[in-house]
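Folding problem:
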Amino acid sequence: MKQTRKTMMFSLGFIATLMISFAGMGMQNAVAVQVDQDNTITLGGLFPLTGTLAGGGVERDAAARMAVKAINADDTLLAGKTLELLVRDTGTDPATGVQVAGDVISLGAVGLIGAASSGVSSAIAQGPAKTSKVPQISYSSTSPSLSDKTEHPYFLRVVPPDSVQGVALANIVNEFGWDNVATLASSDDYGLGGIGVFETTAAELGITVATAQRFAQGATDVKTQLQAIADSGAKVIVLNVIVGDAQTVFAQAADVGLTAAEGYVWVGTDGPTQGAVFESDAAIKANMQGMIGTAPNRGSGAAFDAFLDLWETCYGEDNSTYAGCGDRTPNTYATFAYDAVYTFAKAIDAMITAGTDYTDGDLLLAKLYETDFTGATGPIGFNADGDREGVYDILNLQGDTFVTVGSWDKTNGRQLTGTIYWDGTAATAVPADSAGLPGFGAFLAILSLMVAVPIVSRRR
């Protein structure tokens, strides 16, 4: 009888515990504490699997999941605990991003990987990440506004911000001797942030912006803006838009004669300098030929090569498991997604070793700021704004591929290491920025192509 009573008391207690647990399932904070922190560490993976960034988004998701597999196979990380990634589709939409971020947080995620676009990342950073005190690391959001820690206190990124890229582009334009340009950008956080830095820096360098055109992200007709550029007389066009908007721009550019065949040069940020813009449309690819631009250097060295080995072999699986794998040319930001996962793993591992509670968002954030290691994309560390300094590749669309023809960083400026095909097919003289002749800087750039060695041309 004593044993029966004891069993009944245990059963009632267990049932009561379950009832309390289930009653709290709708409460975000209550659910978070139900995760078994002794065995599983949960991160949320926020990727654009649909929407305008889906082309690259599926490969970033694949790379992040490869990182999880590699970390779980590494006996030196996380003290035997299992890392899991709860992947959700943001749809490249801020409202959806907020919803799915809240979902993974309610399921116990101690950190967020993502998002891709700056607008989605900002909405998440000011919403569930901030209110729940959950650190967030983006792999491709570059808007300068995300450096504002008052609005985005738990946001970090493993890519350099457009406050650096805008300076890089302005200096590259300057070093080609172009003094007269037009700008075209979307009127969202990403578009305005990057192009604003470019225009400010360009003015400081004595470069005239003949016309500054803007359009709403997702617009389907930009011919009015393109015609205004054609009417401005500028032959160099600086473009800052995401992939989907770049497709719209280049689908319509030929209608007003804004192509290399007509003597125009397109200079793009990391958004349009991706194969995803033209991979399914031959006409768009033809209109983009000769384009140059910048993208964060996606990596070098042993860690980068190791990642490419995993990508090429699909990590023992196939591209139905890891979308896009099977070659050595992943999406530009795939390696950054891979490193974002590793950044969390390195920080959490250090906290486990020190006996610190990694489920405390403030403590985890502090440890992330202290984290410093060499990843697939190179040395990783964060400044006070949660940003990363970086090196930019200079890219040139030659036929079917964006070819790396040089690099830019704050210390060394522009370094040309390859031949630029201004028409996409062959080496030619640096085009003029207007109806006039190229300036002295362009003359030096021509010499650099002739002697085929890296030079740094003049700076104002």
